Amino acid sequence: MGQVYLSRTASGRLLALKTIREDLSSDPGFEERFAREIESSDRVRSPWTVTVVDYSPPGRRPQWLATEYVPAPSLADWVAAHGPLPTPALLSLAAELCAAVRAVHQAGLAHRDVKPGNILLARDRPRLIDFGVARAADDSRHTRLGVSVGSPGFLAPDQAVGGVAAEPADVFSLAAVLVYAATGHSPFSRAGEQIPAASLLYRVVHEEPDLTGVPAELAPLLTACLAKDPAARPTADRLGAWLEERGARTGGWPEACPTLLGGQLTEAEHSARTLVDLAPASGAAPDDRTAVAGTARSDTVPAVPAVPGRRRPAWPVTAGVAAVAVLAAVAATVYVGTQESSGSSPSSGSRARASGSVAPAGGDGTASASPRQTQEQQESPQPQESPAKDTALKVVQATLELATGASVTGGNRSLVIQPDGNLVIYDADHTARWASRTTGEGNTARFQADGNLVVYNSGGQPLWASQTNGHDGAVLVFQADGNVVIKSGDTVLWAAGSQD
């Protein structure tokens, strides 16, 4: 639906700035729907939602929405990478998310798209995001006849048949999310299973949920919440009381969350701050609430029109990336007929990038990347370094393959594929200057003959890509200014690593 930019105010507050594609802005009724998202997001002011900071005035183009930035992975990404949550973290998550849903209902709204991809595992407490399809709880309207709005496997049966999605639907979705957090899959799918959305919706409407693997103290509560009849489900208030009876209370998330998550949040916070601190100044007025500190590099990203007299976007990230972006698409994903399900989260493999290409992620959520090279290319000799020229300290030609623990160094920068699966650029003091934010044992990094830098998992699937494929003869350059870039001739296709 658009792009989300990591931005900052003139005072240094980090923001997620969502901009809308021009063609969508001109669609009849879209401005009203976008305005409703803004109103819904601003209406629910609670510790479990993100704060709306500013937004575009009516009639202005491009349309945009600025919220606080939460450098945290989504529940979908975390479980996909690390597996189900341990019981203490699961119980704490249940209490926090119940409070989040309760806050939405107390504001007179129904969220209508509670799913793992819309939950950020922040340091202080989880956040429930994306109010793109939220409506007043008594609003009987839906998109159009025969269309289900929501995410298969997590939406309620009353949503699946196109009925009114009110507060009981959110309670059903919350329970389905907690089953996912406990088992790694929704209560209506099996681990690793990929089935058509229509088949998944059929299970939601007609079959009983599978709670195998859910802790005994939670199973009865979730069973009640997953009742087919909306009237038989407990309210969020009642569910919260049940959880408290079992010792699950709000406020304990920082202690209950996985230790590894805490370390990754520190990395994410540092990376975000480093990126915006390195953005060039825009000269925005000091009293501008959401003036952004810099613009996207015109040689590496599509130009986004500046908001007249004010805001300009800084470092881009792929739209819908929950690991670092606060907001997903404006409208809900709509599933009709036998459209293939793309899973519980649109971003299991997509990751934020520093300055660089912002082509959308692939339809399955992983970054688009060229297929593995042919056997002849895979067996080609090790890359040779061409003589340095201009400001280049090292020029590496394709094909370069980095196995776990391997690195390549040029000047005071090193490109390393770490044992945790993250591709990182370090300076001479071992300070991380950029990271692909990928995880997994056995990951490899490959600078391919088509000019694309890709991180693959142990199964050969791409997790992140520079999106520079299609440029045979491109080179990877370690520059004297501290940037690591991919160039085709004199054209910079991608850049990361930050300037000294």
Automatic annotation (TrEMBL):
Residues 338-361, 370-386 have a biased composition (Low complexity). Residues 393-499 form the Bulb-type lectin domain. Residues 1-243 form the Protein kinase domain. Residues 338-390 are annotated as: Disordered. It holds the Pfam family Pkinase. Signal peptide: none annotated. Keywords: ATP-binding, Kinase, Nucleotide-binding, Transferase. InterPro entries: Bulb-type_lectin_dom (IPR001480), Bulb-type_lectin_dom_sf (IPR036426), Kinase-like_dom_sf (IPR011009), Prot_kinase_dom (IPR000719), Ser/Thr_kinase_AS (IPR008271). This is Non-specific serine/threonine protein kinase. It comes from Streptomyces asoensis.
